Structure formats: C-alpha cells, structure tokens
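Input.
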Amino acid sequence: MAVFITPGSVNDSVVFEQVMDQVRVARPGGGRPRPRPGVLLGDTGYSARRIRGYLRRRRITAVIPEPRDQRANRVRKGSRGGRPPRFDAELYKRRNLIERCFARLKQFRAVAARFDKLASRYRSGVLLASLILWLR
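Output.
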C-alpha cells in the first residue's frame, strides 16, 4: 500500500509517479517485494499521455478506459491519431474493489473530514484506518 498526502485542490494524477515509486508488491512465495505491479487499474483521470508513457516504460499493463474526448480526438486525426490503447473490460471490473475500499476508509470520521492540520498526522490516521480494515 502506498499513501501520498496532497493538498485538497491537487489532482491525484499529478503525484502519480511519486505514489508508484512507493508501491511494493509482495511475492507469493515470500522474499523481497517487487518494485512494480504487473497491472494497474485506473479510471479515466489516469488516461494522460504522460501516465501511459510512464507505465509503458516500466512495463506495467495499463487497464485504463479512454475518455470520450481523447477517443474523438484520436479518431478525428485519422491515421495520425495512432492505435487505440488496449483495454481489458473483464479485468477493469475488479476496480470495484478499490472504490469500495475508499468508501470504507471514508467511514472513519477523521479520514473523511481531515481534522488534522499536519500532513504527517493525517497520513498516520489513514494508515491506521487501513490497518484496521485489513485486520477485520
């Protein structure tokens, strides 16, 4: 799990690379965790060219739907627009788990309202709430 605290007005796609640098994936048989996941499930907010390029460079499969405006722009350019990105609809259905996890985290009042002024304390609260959910 990786948590990166930003001001309320910052879009999460801005700090995407910093969050991905914190991610470690446990190996099934034990051992040192891998520094990159095999697949990333994201919503249309993560469909930026910069993010897709980053994932391609790190050889992470992106399962991100293409927004209508990007699709229309690509089609409008014709052959210069390039190929549409691959999208696995069956795998994307598992993103439901992520959204439900955020909904469960926001049931903790301190996480939802952010009473703490310091980012370090708020981050600790988010990690503590995550731990409580994981142990249930």
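The first strand starts at residue 39 and ends at 41.
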